[in-house]
Amino acid sequence: MTTPLDAVEARLQVAPEHLTWDTYRPDFEALLAQDLTAADVPAWLDRWSALQAQLGDVSARLSIHKDLHTDDDTVQQRYQDYVAQVLPPATRMEQALTEKLLTVPGYAPAPDFALNYRRFRDAAALFREANVDLSVTENEQSSRHSVITGNQKVTLDGQDLTIPQVKQRLDSPDRAQREAAWRAWQDSNMAVAGELDAVMLDLIGTRRQMAKNADEPDYRSYRWKQLDRVDYTPADCEAFHAAVRDEAVPLTTAMMRDLAGKLGLDSIRPWDYNRNNLLDAEGRESLKPFTTGAQLEELAQTAFAGLDADLAARFRHMREHGLLDLESRPGKMSHAYCAYFPTSNEPFVLMNVVGTAEDVRVLFHELGHAFHGFYSGDAQAQVWNRWSPIEFVEIPSMAMEFLTLDHLNHVFGPDELIRYRTKQLESVIAFLPWAAQMDAFQHWLYAQAPEQITVADLDAKWLELDRTFHPFIDWSGLDETVRAKGWQYYHIFHIPFYYIEYAMCYLAAVGIWREARQDPQGALDRYKAALRLGNASPVPDLYRAAGVEFRFDREHIRGLMTFLREQLK
Question: Peptidase M3A/M3B catalytic domain: from which residue to which, for each copy (predicted)?
Answer without folding.
Answer: 171-558
